[in-house]
Amino acid sequence: MTLYNIAESLILEVASRNDLMHALDNHRIVELSYDDEEDPGGKGKRWVQMYCYGVSKASNDVVRVYQVGGDTKTIQPGWKLFRVDRMNNLRKLGGTFDEAKPLFNPTGDKDMTKIYYITQFDNV
């Protein structure tokens, strides 16, 4: 990571572990800015429900989310895997969610080698 990238991350308020854990534990719907460096069309604001936080097979901290709105290449809501270092300006919105979306795996995530936290639900 270059010095420029480090400075840019600090300026853009990269999502902190505490913010992520709070959103996961409290079932908060959050808004964030996401910058997919490999795809110019993958940049923009997202509204998401966070379900799982861990480490990807490529050794990056990641969050499994269900995107309910915002900028997306796929046009439709759905499951996404976001790198934490590409998430900025995390902001809790007013809403929460009490039920897991279909296909949620309460025991893990096939794209993660290590799990820090999985959101818990009474109905799963």
Q: What layout of secondary structure does this protein have?
A:
Blueprint: H1 3-11, H2 17-25, E1 28-35, E2 43-56, E3 61-70, E4 78-83, E5 87-96, E6 112-118
Antiparallel strand pairs: 1-2, 1-5, 2-3, 2-6, 3-4
The portion of residues assigned to helices is: 10-25%
For the report, how would you describe the main beta sheet?
6 strands, antiparallel
Structural class: mainly beta
The proportion of strand residues reads 35-45%
Query: What is the chains' assembly state?
Result: single chain
Mean pLDDT: 85
End-to-end separation in angstroms reads: 40 Å
Care to count the β-strands? 6
Low-confidence parts? 3-12
How many H/I helices? 2
Gross morphology: globular
Please state the CA-atom Rg, rounded to the nearest Å.
14 Å
Order of helices and strands: HHEEEEEE
Would you give an account of this structure?
- The protein has 124 residues and is mostly beta strands.
- The protein contains two helices and six strands.
- Strands 1, 2, 3, 4, 5 and 6 form a six-stranded antiparallel β-sheet that branches.
- Strand 1 and strand 2 form a beta hairpin.
